[in-house]
Amino acid sequence: MPRFFIDSNDDEFHLRDEEGQEFPDAMAARDAAMMMLPDMAREKIPDGDSRRFCVTVRDQSGTTLYTADLILKGEWKHVGSPSR
C-alpha cells in the first residue's frame, strides 16, 4: 500500500508528518485528512474571532496532492459586544 503524509497547520503551529500512514489510495488519505479538521478546530477554540485550520496530503515523493482549509470566522452584529 502507498504511504501518504498528512501535515497540519492552525496558523500558530505547523506539524509536518514525517512518518506517514499507509492508505489504499490518495482518496482514502484525503478522507483521513478531512476528518482531522473538525478535531483540530475543537482542540483550538480561538481567543479571537477567526482562525484557519489546514491539512495537506503529500505522497512519498513529497508532492502535495491535496489541501483543505477550515476557516472559523465570527463577527458581532451589534455595537457594544460583550467582553470577557
From TrEMBL:
Cross-referenced Pfam families: DUF6894
Highest taxon listed in the record's lineage: Bacteria
Domain DUF6894 as annotated: residue spans: 3-69
Record-given protein name: DUF6894 domain-containing protein
Organism per entry: Methylobacterium durans
